Amino acid sequence: MPAGEFRHPSPPPPPPGSEEEERWVWAQIKAEARRDAEAEPALASYLYSTILSHSSLERSLSFHLGNKLCSSTLLSTLLYDLFLNIFSTDATLRSATVADLRAARFRDPACVSFSHCLLNYKGFLACQAHRVAHKLWTQSRRPLALALQSRISDVFSVDIHPAAKIGKGILFDHATGVVVGETAVIGNNVSILHHVTLGGTGKSGGDRHPKIGDGVLIGAGATILGNIKIGDGAKIGAGSVVLIDVPPRTTAILILCSVILLLNRALTILFGV
Amino acid sequence: MPAGEFRHPSPPPPPPGSEEEERWVWAQIKAEARRDAEAEPALASYLYSTILSHSSLERSLSFHLGNKLCSSTLLSTLLYDLFLNIFSTDATLRSATVADLRAARFRDPACVSFSHCLLNYKGFLACQAHRVAHKLWTQSRRPLALALQSRISDVFSVDIHPAAKIGKGILFDHATGVVVGETAVIGNNVSILHHVTLGGTGKSGGDRHPKIGDGVLIGAGATILGNIKIGDGAKIGAGSVVLIDVPPRTTAILILCSVILLLNRALTILFGV
Amino acid sequence: MPAGEFRHPSPPPPPPGSEEEERWVWAQIKAEARRDAEAEPALASYLYSTILSHSSLERSLSFHLGNKLCSSTLLSTLLYDLFLNIFSTDATLRSATVADLRAARFRDPACVSFSHCLLNYKGFLACQAHRVAHKLWTQSRRPLALALQSRISDVFSVDIHPAAKIGKGILFDHATGVVVGETAVIGNNVSILHHVTLGGTGKSGGDRHPKIGDGVLIGAGATILGNIKIGDGAKIGAGSVVLIDVPPRTTAILILCSVILLLNRALTILFGV
Amino acid sequence: MPAGEFRHPSPPPPPPGSEEEERWVWAQIKAEARRDAEAEPALASYLYSTILSHSSLERSLSFHLGNKLCSSTLLSTLLYDLFLNIFSTDATLRSATVADLRAARFRDPACVSFSHCLLNYKGFLACQAHRVAHKLWTQSRRPLALALQSRISDVFSVDIHPAAKIGKGILFDHATGVVVGETAVIGNNVSILHHVTLGGTGKSGGDRHPKIGDGVLIGAGATILGNIKIGDGAKIGAGSVVLIDVPPRTTAILILCSVILLLNRALTILFGV
Amino acid sequence: MPAGEFRHPSPPPPPPGSEEEERWVWAQIKAEARRDAEAEPALASYLYSTILSHSSLERSLSFHLGNKLCSSTLLSTLLYDLFLNIFSTDATLRSATVADLRAARFRDPACVSFSHCLLNYKGFLACQAHRVAHKLWTQSRRPLALALQSRISDVFSVDIHPAAKIGKGILFDHATGVVVGETAVIGNNVSILHHVTLGGTGKSGGDRHPKIGDGVLIGAGATILGNIKIGDGAKIGAGSVVLIDVPPRTTAILILCSVILLLNRALTILFGV
Amino acid sequence: MPAGEFRHPSPPPPPPGSEEEERWVWAQIKAEARRDAEAEPALASYLYSTILSHSSLERSLSFHLGNKLCSSTLLSTLLYDLFLNIFSTDATLRSATVADLRAARFRDPACVSFSHCLLNYKGFLACQAHRVAHKLWTQSRRPLALALQSRISDVFSVDIHPAAKIGKGILFDHATGVVVGETAVIGNNVSILHHVTLGGTGKSGGDRHPKIGDGVLIGAGATILGNIKIGDGAKIGAGSVVLIDVPPRTTAILILCSVILLLNRALTILFGV
């Protein structure tokens, strides 16, 4: 069996959200990392420092995020401490992390294992760091929340305002260029591709960003603007610009990008920079 | 009052561009940082090293940019020295910095303070670093200017050719993915969202990029290609592809993205990667 | 002659792909770096460490990539060793590198020299690192290949699945936000601008990404989805969303983005976030 | 009052070893750091990150040691975690730390404050890190204990075998070059100057290093070899070589270095390297 | 069996200096590291990156030295490359390394395993790095050799002039403060404790440093000055100052430090700084 | 001519202390570095970053010290700024630096060039950093001065109290383990070997450290204790312990280490640790 492939062990996984699931997922991650460390000595040091030397998922995640997001003026120890403290004391965050790992593992065909997501998915990592920033925001620790947002944007090219509310089971796939505004709300089990914007419409303040329902799928490069509702289960096509509400649970979607053009003259000037 | 909020002090700020404004803005920034350091000990070290330990805005900015843009082969001390030397000797750059800080503070509802912009806005930081690269370019120090462009693109995902000319009072909001070509010109008080391209059209050289007038607003993901003019005060919608001139001071804009599609069949294949 | 400009020396360069070409390009790069180091002392240390201290192109490239892609948990020495080992033993990779350098130098008017591309083009660097990740993938060293993909995505904002097959003479221009899926194939002499997606359509696995022919040009922000063919020499306009095959060697292209809108009311809500 | 000077506050400090003392010393340290940060903005960031951002002495010390002793292969987060875990769960170590701070503050005339010792005394820091290494040794975590010893020796030039037993209230003054062997024992309230060796005599194993009583003072460069006893309160002169027991509580000491030489001929060859 | 303890495997080790010995020692080191990584997850990452991910002793050693001796201006990749290149092409150096490992393992009772010495003994590491500096010196690459000497002195507090000639099977125990001058020569199987100086006598140049025979033992803090001979097998006591030849193979030694002093008055002024 | 060797150019150097000397020494250093960079590409990057990219000796020195002494909590840019500011505004410090460079170059036979000393001599570098710490001390910026002392002691194993007064033309040779107390004074043109202590005698404060006259030479490991005078031109033998005044300009010296011992029995126990 090639390294990197993942096979479900015989006993079925615990039900999603149950207490045993967190332990089960962490056990899976350690088993995957152990197998990969054995198969690839060049990666073993990395796998031990990020996963195998830790006693829990929140420690591993806090360590990994601290090292990814630190800078010469925001030290890794400070961030590690901050993340660990918040993940350790908030079971809701930990269960959201597990739901996000499931989302990547079972909804993205390119995701070969839980540890693949934990280590390598910048969308996953940006989302977990956002949850901490959001928690800080709700505690009125805003300068720290904003500093975290800035680091996430520098490192992962994912810019989520710490006030934005995000549900569980989220898949930010590829994630580069995602922008989520201050008053945006994202439901549960949402999949969002790269370059997606949940933006405002230039109003000077107040509630001005989209509300995304449960189970929504938003394609690459879609731009959704204003305080509008994307109903549960809706699908937004890649490259769409959406300015009005989309009804819940419809497969039809609203886009502002269409029509086939075959005008040679006009198109020959479209290329390059 | 929650940390991170900013209230205007009683006396009105000095007129924009006046000599006192630079001192006033710097005094505001220090006051904000002092308040935040007191409220949030975990951030105090960061605020002292980036703002409170410095005697002027250009020193603070040079330090912050040097630490953000350095790498193992381009040391922070070298970059700090370079930035400080250029900001110290060119009052025009300093006044552009102040105008950019005002632009973010007063045009972006999510911007809670001047220090928020100085510390956290990658669009602001990329723009200041570009101004230095542009200055080097005009001094025929091109390899250094290009190295700087490359670091800005790596760190902030903002790719501005050092030859591009950019006015004052610029807001690059979110900024990830912005690309500005070699012969592009951007006027004063322009707002540019993320993923915006001011690109060429594949011609082999010469003047081949857009000229953006004063007060223009360019929405997220807009692509403006070729040596065309976007008139003063024009607004370009999010996701637009613009290939021809847009008249000055019009609210109407030209886009190549439109029409509502409700064809279920076609759209079900638009999602994901 | 201003620093940074490049003049072809009198003798014509060796034929592309010939054995002498690699040596010739490396000699050019060293000559350029030597000239720039002399003209710009502030950059000399950088040029010596990345280019002039090395005895071959693959050593210089391995050093540069190792330093760019390393992190606190994936050390530069480990990556340097990995890159050098693979580039040294695979002449095909080295010849692809040279073809990519030619592509940037002669197809991008903003590229002033080979060393400019080698040092500064994140698209070039991401592509070379991808070739190593792809090689690891074909050797079933998948966890390492995926770790490399993740670092390339973090550092360059370019996300190419290590299984994707990419030809020679590739120009990823600006490159921020490029996403290339697992079963995508890219031919030779292809130019791809920033924000381009070669994505899937949400199918749960299998061959689900585009196949790009030789000599294709894909404009900024184009989104190409599904297991479709873009024929040799085709051109895809900026901002296009492409869902069906494009015939080979046609100048006509298929896009889903069009029509001119001048409705003031609709457009005033399109701006900002 | 000049910065850096320390005045005892009016209420007398709590009795040594009492429960309140730890809190009192920590309060002193924070007050000193706050005063210094105010007087010296260039140092404020350092003082906040090492002292003022922490909620307890053990957190501050763990952070400081983690950053001092880390390397590219032993990350600061790992060490921070290790130190914090051990200091948090072992009150004996914490009380020894406080006793050592008192020892420096009240026995070394050059020590101007508790924070001066905490931040700057490599002898103090090496001793605290040794206590952690010793604890690991007693838990049979020997490879980690030895790795810590090695880092302490690299960073502080203080080489204490993790098996060595060291009491409370220890002052390692200047500390460079101190060597303490595996079976050495050091009592309470001992002062040891730099270049002091508590070494073996070449025997192949077993109990082979000195036992130092309470309140002993060992001068700079003294070399004490073999399983001998230095009695309580004894004083060993600088440069001494001691090979036999020294009686307890005597002011007389045994040395092997003596006699005044005024032979010009012999001494003219003693200088330089 | 407690972690960190080492038991000889049943088959006797290959004869010293034989070709198989290098392989045997490397196999021992890997086995030790594997055992320790299993017993101590916190150290596993370190053990994998420094030992277990490498295919040979010279790769492991070059990696370890490169990371220890690098600085912000002398990068680890450069040093790694330099060390690996020299160790790979010079079998004499490799065999000296193995002999030094044996020396520590079998002559120092505190050395619990080969890997303990390879990872943690700064005297061992300084000596290996010196061998490389010496090789560079003999190749007239003097500035690089001197830069290496400087790094070794900064990092390990061991200052050996690159021109000094050092044999095999050397044990620098503890090592802090060792100084070896330009024209010094050290034979085989020599043990040198910390603070030992092999210095000159102030002459203005030429052959002015000691020549140490085979099997000599020099105690802590001994100072040996001038172009004198210490005969094979001689022993120099701790703290000695030696200015004249010591006959070969004698157990008697010459020192300039002696006599027992019991004068209370004189000695009470000897303590502290 | 082998790299690393230095020949005096034809015109004689300017008189010591003259205004032209500083320029002349800096020109020599640049010429040496240029020659070495050409001969040794592996070192060129280092030589450009530390010497050749700088416009003056004080910039080069400030850069080098900033990079050597920085830590994760005391950033290189902060230290660079501090050093540059003080060296730029105090001509006395700059002239002392030049005198120290001369001292190493002409009094140490192992010193092959001015740049050898500037780059590699930790005694020289520690002394220059001490002068800055001393200046800060006299300005009552004591916490910063003490932090600097601590970094010098960590990095160079040289511990000089910032209050100690040191003249010009000082050679700290090898330097490891040098300790200089708070009230010590060192005259001009003094040479001090490694492990030398200018310490106190345990008194609780006040003027308690040695006063060293001009032109004194102190051998390796000498320990000089108490408020005593070492007269101009005196020589202190290696390993001496000096407790009383030494008359000026005598070649005779006072030591407390003497007599030849040939007692086999006693000495066989002197070895090892």
TrEMBL record, chains A, B, C, D, E, F:
The record places domain Serine acetyltransferase N-terminal at: 25-129
Task: Give the InterPro entries listed for this entry.
Answer: Hexapep, Hexapep_transf_CS, LbH_SAT, Ser_AcTrfase_N, Ser_AcTrfase_N_sf, Ser_O-AcTrfase, Serine_acetyltransferase, Trimer_LpxA-like_sf
Q: Can you name a GO cellular component term?
A: cytoplasm
Q: Name one Pfam family in it.
A: Hexapep_2
Q: What is its EC number?
A: 2.3.1.30
Keywords, in A-Z order: Acyltransferase, Amino-acid biosynthesis, Transferase
State one molecular function term (GO). Answer: serine O-acetyltransferase activity
Report the pathway entry: Amino-acid biosynthesis; L-cysteine biosynthesis; L-cysteine from L-serine: step 1/2
SMART domains associated with the record? SATase_N (SM00971)
Q: What class of enzyme is it?
A: transferase
**Annotated NCBIfam families:** cysE (TIGR01172), EPS_EpsC (NF041874)
Which protein family is it in? Belongs to the transferase hexapeptide repeat family.
What name has this protein been given in UniProt?
serine O-acetyltransferase
